[in-house]
Amino acid sequence: MCEQHDQQGPSDVRATAPDVGRRALVRGAGGLLLGGGLVVAGAGAARAATSQNGWPASSSPSAIGITGLTVAGHAFPSGVRGGQVHTILGYVARRFHSEVEALVTPGNWGYNYRVISGSTSLSNHASGTAIDVNAPRHPLGSSGTFSATQVSRIRSILSSCNGVVRWGGDYSGRKDEMHFEINVRPGDSRIAPLVAKIGGTTPAPTTAWSTVQSGASGFRVTAIQHLLRARGQSLTVDGVFGSVTVSRVKAFQSSRSLLADGVVGPKTWVALVVTVQNGSSGQAVVAAQKALTARGYSLTADGVFGATTASKAKAFQTSRGLLADGVVGAQTWAKLTI
Ligand SMILES: [Zn+2]
């Protein structure tokens, strides 16, 4: 578990922290808190009703609606605040697991009633509005524990959260790269739209997909052919669903234990699409670029997912009511090819 996060907005800290805490936090802003004495919460040290970010905190988890959080089979003891916070931090953890680094257990944490070391301010963990992920790999005070690619994926997650979530790796003083927290106050106007956008993205059982089969032609077939190539199947991309394409679809379906009927329906689409985002390259990116172009978001199909592709992807997502994160995942693929 991270020991602390000492970088809430300085004006907030100065407005609320008692003298001793203020001194400690000013030192913290200069990165000098390392080695400071650990103050254990629960012994009467903390009297504030809110954690550093302004959310209600309590030594009684039930009093503030702490609920369990499990992501990909990995529990976050002792859970996080329920409702919107749970949705947001769960979203961050799921994307961290799938895009940045697979979660490991033990090493993930949520609610914990305690103060910030060296101060009397309550940690955001004390309100259940912070999580630590893969703590042993990203120890408090260390920077550079993630690769550049991983950092760019973290940036993508943060961007999706529209300022609602802050990463401890962005603290100006002591880094805390295991740590993600809600960085806005309760009722902030950015929370509800974010929850509305991400709330339905986790399981997507109702996502509608097209059905494409022999005899079809056009951009859907082009996308399928590029995606088949991305999946290791060899064929020419001509936008025509002929016998070779049928054969390659069947081979792909067999490889995934799907019914090998040569028809690209929902199950085959889900298995076939590849999530692409800023930094991705290859046939799946070509597929996405051509599909975006076909949908009116014109792009050069160069197979390199850069800023322009991300921008067009976001515009498309916005037009379809999807979370505009620039990541072309299953839901965006479905809308692109429906
Ligand atoms: Zn933490």
Strand and helix layout:
Elements: H1 10-16, H2 19-29, E1 66-67, E2 70-71, E3 74-75, E4 80-81, H3 84-100, E5 130-132, H4 148-160, E6 165-167, E7 179-182, H5 191-198, H6 219-230, H7 243-255, H8 266-272, H9 283-294, H10 307-319, H11 330-337
Helix pairs in contact: 3-4, 3-5, 6-9
This protein binds zinc ion.
3D structure, described in words:
- By secondary structure, the chain is mainly alpha-helical.
- The protein has 2 domains: 189 residues, Muramoyl-pentapeptide Carboxypeptidase, domain 2 (2-Layer Sandwich), CATH 3.30.1380; 119 residues, Orthogonal Bundle (Muramoyl-pentapeptide Carboxypeptidase, domain 1).
- The strands form 3 sheets. Strands 5-7-6 form a 3-stranded antiparallel beta sheet, with helices on one face.
- A hairpin with a 2-residue loop joins β2 and β3.
- α3 runs antiparallel to α4, α3 packs across α5 and α6 runs antiparallel to α9.
- The chain is elongated, with a radius of gyration of 23 Å.
- The two termini are 44 Å apart.
- Bound molecules: zinc ion.
- The site of zinc ion has 5 residues, from β5.
Index terms:
Muramoyl-pentapeptide Carboxypeptidase, domain 2, 338 residues, Muramoyl-pentapeptide Carboxypeptidase, domain 1, three-stranded antiparallel β-sheet, 11 helices
Radius of gyration: 23 Å
Helical content class: 25-40%
The strand line-up of the biggest sheet is 5-7-6
CATH class of the largest domain: Alpha Beta
The main sheet comes to: 3 strands, antiparallel
| Estimated share of beta-strand residues | 5-15%
Heterogens: zinc ion
Order of secondary-structure elements: HHEEEEHEHEEHHHHHHH
CATH topology of the largest domain: Muramoyl-pentapeptide Carboxypeptidase, domain 2
Structural class: mainly alpha
DSSP E strands, number? 7
Poorly predicted runs: 5-48, 201-205
